[in-house]
Each structure stands twice: as structure tokens, then as C-alpha cells.
Amino acid sequence: MNSFWALSPLLLVVLAALVVLLLEVFLKKETKDYLAYLSSLFLAGCGIILMIFWDKNYSYFDGNFLLDNLALVFSLLLTLATILVILISIKYISLQGANYGEYYALLLFALSGMLIMVSSQSLLIIFLGLEILSISSYSLAGLRRENPESSEAAIKYFLLGSFATAFLVYGLALMYGSTHSLEISSIIRFLTTGTHLNLMLLVGLGLIIIGFAFKIALVPFHMWTPDVYQGSPTPVTAFFSVGPKVVGFAVLLRIFHFYWETAFHTQTLMTALWVISVLTMVVGNLIALRQTNVKRILAYSSIAHAGYLLIALIAQDPTSLIFYLAVYLFMNIGAFTAVTSLGRKGKEYVELNDYSGIGFKYPWIGATFAVFLFSLAGFPPTGGFLAKFFVFASAVRKGFTPLVIIAVIASLISVFYYLRIIVTMYMKEPSPSMQILTRNPVLFSVLFLCLYGVLQLGIYPGNVLGFIRQAVAAMPLL
Amino acid sequence: MIPISYFLILSAVLFALGMVAFFVKKDLITMFMAIEIMLNAANLAFITLAKSASSLNGQVIVFFVITVAAAEASVGLAIILLIFKQKKSVKTEDISLMKG
Amino acid sequence: MIELFLVFLVFGLLGVVLVFMNKLLGPKKPNPIKESPFECGSPYLQEGINPVPIMYYMVAFLFLLFDIEVVFFFPWALVFKEMGSTALVIMFAYIFVLVVGFVYAWKKGAFKWEL
Question: For the structural domain made of B4-90, what CATH number should be given?
């Protein structure tokens, strides 16, 4: 249905960002907490609007901006992730010397870019959304201006990110050249009306996939990930590990969704994705084994998880892909929240040695962090287990048994480094010099919310799965 | 009338040159210029293909790419300036705090 | 035709060879005075390229942004007649966002030359 209301969630987010920017320069208050609460309020409103729009299928700009149920599920996930990240940053940015109100505005702009990406039907608009996301991300990575690591993260992210953008634009050009359009629906029409699988189209699609592979950190396009994750402020790392990944897979789902039937029978692309998936899982998990920085370990773990997610894409199973992304959101933001909580003014604890004895010294942080790590490793009864189970089961059903065997071996390897953190937390003597700020109620409530999410999705996933199934059923042409 | 394929080959060569320069050069500003060359190669391809399809869409897309590149340039140059203020250098070998 | 080509080939190659012969056979005795930018006897007073004030970059970045964003006015002007009032609303929304950015930069002190 054509309606201006389709734009309202997006406009609300942009409006919130502009209001935050103006308040920051006009009020000039010392504490920025009120900006955080204001932006989460706006985002909560945006989330409520998204829920009201369920099954309504609003669209605008001649159907180019479509809020179908699939877009709504992704938008809700992204909005939730942004709210959680905003809440855990409140104390952090003032403790770690990044106390700028622009922080929240940049997060909101990044969110608006992602909302554009998941609900747009035109590859050009998807590209513009991606750029809004990327440019905000480059600034967010370098937000601790006095910290040389943060600036390094920003420049690495910027150079490799815009390198990927160039690939994406060239891919779009070739795609436009062979189909004379960048709207997904006309590309589908072009592909279904004839056997025009020419070289230009295939190269264009390959370049577009490379562009997105950079964003979701698939091996061999993952080089930036560990450095950027290590150097960025920790809540921003949590955002990077979830936001771009969810949105990248959302777009790949939309692209492949029309391409599955046509291209996957030709096997070229399929084989390439198969190889990338195996490389991502194996390389990510193996390099993680010899890391000593917890943020780097989590970075390589997020690379490995992109590999598992790619299996869901190869197995053509959107339901388990979205379920995996939902679980991944809770467990990864939860893990980074635990890392964020271990800090005081001007000091952060991110080396593995700092974690010795945390389990006894700060029992709540230790216990919840352990649950998130178990979930990332895929132990029952956490959500991580069910998510992996669904993905692997549907891959076996579609006849990708060798891929699943490699994936299972890779996740067995991953257990080592997750357990290494837990062992350090519980089996070593605490170091007396370690002091953290424990009065941070907002952060602890986020920690427990993520814990609830991981366990709820692991023990009783029925509700969420029902919603996801409805969303997938509404996808056109499947 | 110059054939369409000449322009496409030119844009592919420009793109490849940009890619090579990105990997070979050891200077942040030059690497950034390499990326700009790649983006402009893509723009050339867009205009050429729009001409061959005799549609205006492709030329409008170029406007978008140009603005995006400008926004990226100002953020990127600001980051490079930040690096220069901290290290007094814009060489890649001086940016190696994080390894592993 | 072929003679012309040969002439270019032979003399071109000769030029290249002579340039590299010079590099290979010439004596090399560098000393600090020879390495300096001017060999006229007086020591140089400052570096060739001086850093410009940081505000110069600020103004340049802002100019780049606001200058390029205005490029969207051209396609808008082309379709203005067909779209009518919708086009006007869209352009005002666009300008509003630009103005917010401008006000932000202004209040932040980006246009003050002295820090």
C-alpha cells in the first residue's frame, strides 16, 4: 500500500539525530546522559511504530521503499541493537575520554543508513544507505581522539571500507549495464524472461558481493576487522559486530533471493560462496586461538560467525539465517557489554591476563560473560546452540553435508578459545590491582537483558520463530 | 564515433590501476587518491553504459556517487589529519600499533 | 611508414639508453652540501613546505561538503516543472538538513579563524 507513513520510522530516527546534534551545540551541558536517554526514547518510539506496521506492507516512492515484514524484522533487530549500544555507552564515553554528544547522533545516523538498506528495493538506494552507515562508522571508530589506537582503527576502517565501496560501485555499474536498471524487481524480470546470463552481469554481481563481503568481514576480505574492533571504543565495537553484519546479510538475502533459481543452477557463484564460507570459518577460528586481547578474540569469533551465517545463505534458508542473527545480536552485544563493564576512568581491561579471577571478584559479570561465551561456542541450552543447529540441519537437508562437517569441526576448534577466557576467569588468582567502576545500573540491566535474550531464544524460541516464519513467508517470489 | 567498448576498457584499466596503486603505495594520501581513481573509473562506466542504454538514470547515479565520494573525502581527510597531528607522519609503516 | 616507426624506435631507445648510461657510469661522491636543496653556499633557513594553519583544513572540508551537496539542485531543477509542489517540499526538506549541518558547524566554532 502506497503511504507516506512508510517513511515515518526512518524520519523519526533522522529527526532524533538532528535534534541531538542541535541540543549538543546549543545547550553545551557537561554531562551527556540526557542525550542518550532522549535518543533511546526516540528509538523506542521508532520500534513501536515498526511493530504497528506489521502485516501492513506500506511502501513509498513507487514501491522503491517497501516496509514488508522481512524489512520490519531486520529494522526491529537493528533498532534494538542500537538502543542497547546507546545504553551501554552512557558511562563509557565519559570514562574513556570520548564525551561528545555527536556520538549519539552518529549512532543514529548509522542506524538510519541501515534502515534505508533493509527496506529499499533499489540497489542504488541500498548503496546510499551503506555509505551513510560507513561514513558514520569511520567517525565512530576514531572517536577517542586522544587515543592513537582509536585513530589507527579509524584510518584502517576508512581506507579498506572505501576500497570496498569502489568495488561495490563498479559492480553496480556493470549490473546497470547488463540489466539497464538497478531496481531489484526489474533485475528479477530481466533474469526470468531470458537466459541472458552474460559475463558482465556475473562479474558485476561478484563485485557487489565482494563489496558486501568487506562489510560483513568474510575471509579473504576480513583484514580490517581485528584492528578496527580492537581500536574502536568498546560499545562501538559491539555496534560494528552486529549492525553491519545484520544489514549485510539482509541485503545479500534480498540479492540472492532473486538470484537463487537462476544462478545457483549454474554453480559458479555457489562454488565461490562455498569456498568463502569454509575459509571464513577455518581462518577465523584458527587465528583466534593465538590472540591474547579479548576484543581481538571476539573479532575473530565474529568473523567465524559470518561463515556460519553464510551457510544459511547457501542452504537457502532465510528463517534460520534471521534466527541466527537474532541470537547473534544478543550474545555478541552481551559479550561486549561484559568487556565494557570492566573499566574505570581512563583505563580499560582488555588483555586476557586482566581477566584472571574475575569470576570470583565480580561474580555477576563473570557469570553472564561465561554464558555469552558458551552461547558463542554453541553449547545447549543457550540460543547459540539452537541457532547453529537450525542452520546445520537445513544445510544437511539441502545436501551440503561436507560443508556442515567442516563447520562442526570449526566450531569445535572455537570451543578452545572461548573456554580459555572462562578458564582464566575462574581458575586463576585475581590480580589485586584491578579496579573497576561497579556503579553502572544501566549497563547491568543491558547485561541481564542480553542474558534473558540468549536463554529465551535457546529454551523457548517458538514465539520469535513464528514471527520470523511469517516474515519469510511474505517474501515475494520464493 | 568511438565504440562503447573503448570507454569500458578505459574504465577497467583505470580501476585496475587504482587497485594496484592502493596496494603498492605506502602513503595514506596516495592510497586515498587511488580509491578516488577507482570510484571515478566506476563513474565512467556508469556514464558509458547509460549512453549505450540511452537512459538518463545512469547519469543521475553518477551525481550520487560524486556526492558520496565528497562526503567520504572530507571524513577521510579529517581522519588523516588526526593521524598526522598524533604521529607527524602519514606513512603506512608508522601506523602499526596493533598486530596479531 | 615503417621508416618513420624505425626512426622513433631507434632514437627513443637511444634516449633511454643514454639516460641510464649516465646513471650507471657517472661518478657518485655525495656530501651533505650537495644533498641540500640549494647549492649556492648559504644554508637554507626553513623547510620548503610549511604546514598551513589547521583552520585552513576545517574550512576546506566544510567547503567541499557544502559545495558538492548543492549538485543535487541541478537534476531537481530539470524535473521541477513536472513534479510541481512535491518537488518543492522535497527540496525544502533537503535544504533543512543542510541548514542543520551548517548551524551545527557554526555553533561548534568551525568558522572562527582564531582558535
Answer: 1.10.287.3510
